[in-house]
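User: I'm new to structure prediction. If I give you an amino acid sequence, what do you actually give back? Let's try with this one:
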Amino acid sequence: MLSPTLFPLFCALFLCLPVAVIFTVQRELTGVASPEFGFRSLSVFSLYARNVPDASSPPVRTPPPIPKDDEPLLRLASRVNPNHPPGSTRKVAFMYITTTPLPFAPLWEMFFNGSSSKDLYNVYIHADPTRDYDPVFSGVFANRVIHSKRSERYTPTLAAAARRLLAHALLDDPQNYMFALFSPSCVPIRSFDFTYKTLVSSRKSFIEILKDEPWQFERWAARGDDAMLPEVKLEDFRIGSQFWALTRRHARMVARDRRIWEKFNKTCVREDTCYPEENYFPTLVNMRDPRGCVPATLTHVDWTVNDGGHPRMYEAEEVAPELIVRLRKTRPRYGEDGINGSDWSVSKRSDPFLFARKFSPEALEPLLGMAKGVLFNDSACGA
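Assistant: Good question. You get back a string of structure tokens that encode the predicted 3D arrangement of the chain. For your 383 residues, that looks like this:
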């Protein structure tokens, strides 16, 4: 029988035995010691650990699922680091808004195949779930459709789709450095390497920002005469191309914005002047960070023809090397607004167009026929 004086000690040792066993097993599994012994520690209560790592590798974490509703989605995206990870590869996020199958998918496939590495880009698609997509997305576009919602002209839904794409791209890859938006009728008119270098070497966004355009007041008042006040005064309102390339910092700025978006995310009382996708982004960037952008788009479009609010459509018979060379040599229109348009550095710029629109679906074959010799040959015909 144990001595009465030893009985409490024996009980204490018996109670401590399970703790000692767990501690020993944990150390054997993780191969690490606690910080006070000079080694990296790993909490066994980590919520996202996929595997038990060894001492030479950091813990692998599974990110939380991306929300389907816009409010939590954008709130989560607004918390990402706006800075690109130092020393890592800069990637371009190619983002497509479409309500149809992508008619130029084979051409884009050739474009992406010209890259030196598949680690230089990511693809994201916003596809209206109320539409049919036949053929389905394949190749580089396979499994790249984000959670999408209905989108249509004369409503805030197209701008909302672009915000959704930005949020997904921000959350998907911290190496996404530049975020470029496209429509189904957009085509590349330069090689991937030329396009990539142009975008990732820029510290500024490329977004058209125009002031005092025709119908500016009507666009501003499309939701009602005073609907934009007090947040967006008429003198703050801007117009620009729907298609832009934003830096990571500006992409997060869009995700963080609630105040300005609330004004644009309203039903218009005048449908014929309601183009939030062409007004929200240039207005926001100009109000928040005008010096952080080049006030021009790198997607060429011909507005000398205006067919019901649509620019010129290039038909198959018009597609020739001379057309591509002409589009490449055209100088972008730069914003004429204060520190942008009157700034010497902007007035002397001549950035290259990298993309063009609108092309009819029938233009695919002639475009494919001259893809290697012209489209993706940056020195073709002296262009």
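You can read the tokens as a compact description of the fold. Here is one thing that stands out. Confidence is low (pLDDT under 50) at residues 17-54, 338-342.
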